[in-house]
């Protein structure tokens, strides 16, 4: 594999492994050996489903505004905010009126996200 294959662009919609997570919620996934990046795009007012997984997850709001639902709390987030979600904590995201774009980082990589498809994945 060429080292060039290890370089990507966060704004290139054709780069990465595509998944449709929910209505109005899509992601492009980039998987490594010990970590995985997911660039999630949410349409205005779109929301994912409440879910959990054993992997630790960090998120960064790149654009827009949203409500981060984590555990039993709803926390407003704005561009530049970032957060950690420990493994097995229920969570989701609800986009604001202009939509949102989030960079999620998983460690270790989520096995169900290593293939194209739809949904948040199941074990």
From TrEMBL:
Q: Which domain of life is it from?
A: Bacteria
Q: Where is region (Disordered) located?
A: 78-123
Q: Where is the Cupin type-2 domain?
A: 39-106
User: Could you tell me which InterPro entries the record lists for this protein?
Assistant: Bacilysin_H2HPP_isomerase (IPR052535), Cupin_2 (IPR013096), RmlC-like_jellyroll (IPR014710), RmlC_Cupin_sf (IPR011051)
Can you say what this protein is called? Cupin domain-containing protein
Organism of provenance: Bradyrhizobium frederickii
């Amino acid at each position: 594999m060429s080292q060039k294959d290890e370089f990507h662009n966060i704004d290139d919609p054709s780069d990465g492994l595509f998944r449709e997570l929910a209505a109005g919620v899509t992601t492009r996934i980039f998987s490594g050996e010990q970590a995985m990046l997911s660039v999630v795009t949410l349409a205005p007012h779109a929301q994912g489903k409440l879910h959990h997984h054993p992997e630790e997850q960090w998120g960064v709001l790149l654009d827009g505004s949203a409500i981060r639902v984590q555990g039993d709390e709803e926390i407003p987030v704005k561009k530049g905010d970032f957060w950690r979600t420990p493994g097995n904590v229920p969570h989701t995201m609800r986009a604001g009126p202009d939509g949102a774009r989030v960079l999620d980082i998983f460690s270790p990589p989520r096995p169900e996200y290593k293939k194209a498809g739809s949904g948040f994945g199941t074990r």
